[in-house]
Amino acid sequence: MRKAVLVLLVLVAVSFATQRMVVLEGFTNYTCPSCPSADAAWEAIDAQYHENMILCEWHMNWPGASDPFYLYNPVDQNNRRSLYGVNSVPDTYVDGTKVSWSSAGAYVASRINVPSPMDIVLDGNITGSEGYLSARFEWTDSVPDGYYRAYFIIVEKDLSAGGRHYNYTMRITEPDYPGWLIPDNEGVHYWTQEFDVDQVWKVDDVIGYVIVQNFMTKQIVQSARVDLGEWQTPVKETSWGQIKAMEY
Asked: How confident is the model at residue 120 (pLDDT cuts 50, 70, 90)?
């Protein structure tokens, strides 16, 4: 009898396991003398673990205040900097935890093997000057009480400034900081986020992310990615999910 109970418990644990999509965030500046090494390391990590992670690069206004990607959207850059308390570049975070850029690869590898308590389905579309991201969030395991927020991010690949090349550069975040409050820590919830498309974007190089993060502990719960350069099938919203979403 005891042996049968043990087998049952294992089956229950496996049923709640959700593959984690790790979030690697790098803070940089195009005049920073030590940033190219970190930039290259972040992108090498992405190349190795791309199927199980997302990379987002945030640009700061120091040491050179003329960084064009910072100037494009200083509000969202500074909001993210303030959340982590970043005061120098390069700076690196994996799932909300500060690490050195040289050790970030090992930390990403270890986090990939940590199941997430949430499953996310993310789809999106761009048509002309308008776009949207449509997400389904499902809690698959319990989590500590916290302040869980969904944060939608648009990044663009293949950008250059000052002779340096960047991929996964943040363009905009939606909704306004600090994002959408995820209802409770159980059940299924839906959210559709509309955004304006800037004509300067190369649409085929635009990618959509969503990050769910505990804004009290800074720990990232889960993330998802969608290529907005191709037509996507929107996540079907139930009336219950839409009503729940609009309550917050």
From this structure: very high
- SS (HEC) of 51-118: HHEEEEEEECCCCCCCCHHHHHCHHHHHHHHHHHCCCCCCEEEECCEEECCCCHHHHHHHHHCCCECE
Sign of CA dihedral 83, 203, 227, 32: negative
Give 160-219 pLDDT, tens digit per residue: 998 999 999 999 999 999 999 998 778 999 999 999 999 999 999 999 999 999 999 999
Asked whether residue 72 carries a pLDDT value surpassing 50, the answer given is yes
Q: What length is written for the chain?
A: 248
Higher pLDDT: 184 or 49? It is 49
Dihedrals phi, psi of 150, to nearest 5 degrees: -100, 130
Structure tokens at 235: 């996540």
Contact in structure between 69 and 166 (CB atoms under 8 Å): yes
Three-point CA angle 52, 28, 114, nearest 5°: 25
The CA distance from 128 to 151, in Å, is 23
Element (H, E) at 197: none
pLDDT 10s digits, 211-225 = 999 999 999 999 999
114-133: burial string, b at 16+ Cβ within 10 Å, e else: eebbbbbebbbbbeeeebbb
Residue 151: phi and psi, rounded to 5, are -130, 110
Amino acid at 215: F
- Average pLDDT (109-133) is 94
First-last CA distance in the chain: 47
CB atoms within 10 A of CB 202: 11
Eight-state DSSP code of residue 245: H
User: Distance between CA 182 and CA 240 in Å, rounded?
Assistant: 14
